[in-house]
Specification:
The chain is an alpha/beta fold. The chain has one domain: 3-Layer(aba) Sandwich (Rossmann fold). The protein is built from 10 helices and 8 strands. It has an 8-stranded mixed β-sheet, sandwiched between helices. The longest helix has 19 residues. The protein is globular, with a radius of gyration of 18 Å.
Length: 348
């Protein structure tokens, strides 16, 4: 049975978010205002601290990728968090509670990165930042296991980052081979930029947050004319050979439901271990609402359990990734990939 809190959140999200924008600019302004004003209730776990930092020293993003580090006193693992927000918005305040839970329960330093946003910086800006941050963290903490987790647009980036790191590890053409994460979690990922999955229309009324038109507008802003079938923007079309274990979540009531199912199917076909958690009558990215939804607290416990199992394993190399044939990026992406490896530094 759906909790009373979930029904209240559903009603509130419909009033706050589910309004059709007249223009893409209106969508960006509204989502950024919501992100700037939003903060979920709750406190950080005891012993967990928060500080602003930067990751690496990519020349394109001086002095590095901006980030917030949430960490216990003596962390033994590293987690990269990629936020949602339709590629156009996102603030740490909405994620403080969830990042705090991950840091405390996993005894991990959690880096929430403030990647570059569309429309000011369309693809591949966000993916460049995510890949650079992942490589820099792996280099800065070589003896600690690493995991990636993201929600919505960040779920897209989580999967795309794995695909790109795998491809760069396989071809070895652009400097040191990156270390693949031990596991990854994608919460309600937006993984199909083509947008023809049945749930886009079938769940248009039941989704409390998103409409097909909102997704189309945000997608167009991020793609800026890029091919929507490129797996680096649509991981639902990706080759998942050589990727680490995945956990995916999706609400059976959301318009992005089929994106998670598509990814799960392709990953399983490639022999990847996949855990798919679904619930009825939950809002998009419901685990992010850890402090207000009992269902979110139950499922975050499962997410933590999944990550803990893989983060406790020995740090692995990238040998398994070399089995996969690399995806050849579209024209113009070689230079970006070369820059990605030009200067990799640790957090400052």
């Amino acid at each position: 049975m759906t909790s009373f809190a979930a029904r209240v959140v559903d009603r509130g999200l419909r009033l706050l978010m589910k309004r059709e924008p007249a223009t893409p600019d209106e969508l960006v302004i509204r989502l950024r205002r919501i992100a700037a004003a939003g903060r979920l209730p709750g406190r950080l776990p005891s012993g967990v601290t928060v500080r602003k930092t930067t990751i690496g020293n990519e020349p394109a993003v001086p002095p590095g990728v901006p980030a917030v580090c949430v960490t216990p006193d003596r962390p033994t693992a590293t987690v990269l968090y990629l936020h949602g927000g339709a590629f156009v918005s996102g603030r740490f305040a909405m994620y403080a509670n969830l990042c705090g839970q991950l840091a405390g329960r996993l005894n991990a330093r959690v880096f929430w990165i403030d990647y570059r946003l569309a429309p000011e910086m369309p693809y591949p800006g966000a993916l460049d930042d995510a890949c650079h941050a992942c490589n820099a963290l792996a280099a800065a903490y070589p003896d600690d296991p690493l995991a990636i987790i993201g929600d919505s647009a960040g779920g897209n980036l989580t999967l795309a980052t794995l695909l790109r790191l795998r491809d760069e590890s396989a071809d070895g053409e652009f400097g040191p081979r990156p270390r693949m994460p031990a596991c990854a979690v994608a919460i309600s990922p937006g993984a199909d930029m083509v947008g023809d999955a049945p749930s886009r229309q079938a769940n248009a009324a039941s989704d409390a947050m998103l409409t097909p038109r909102m997704i189309q507008m945000a997608t167009a802003l991020y793609l800026a004319g890029h091919d929507p079938r490129d797996p680096y923007v649509s991981p639902a079309y990706g080759d998942y050979n050589g990727l680490p274990p995945l956990m995916l979540t999706a609400s059976e009531s959301e318009v992005l439901r089929d994106d998670a199912y598509q990814v799960a199917h392709r990953a399983r076909q490639a022999g990847v271990s996949v855990t798919l958690r679904t619930r009825w009558n939950m809002p998009h990215v419901w685990p992010v609402f850890y402090s207000v939804l009992p269902e979110a607290r139950q499922d975050v416990a499962d997410i933590v359990g999944f990550m803990r199992r893989h983060l406790s394993a020995p740090v692995a190399g990238t040998g398994a990734a070399t089995r996969a044939k690399p995806h050849v990026p579209p024209s113009g992406q070689k230079a970006a990939r070369s820059r990605l490896h030009s200067r990799v530094g640790g957090p400052t």
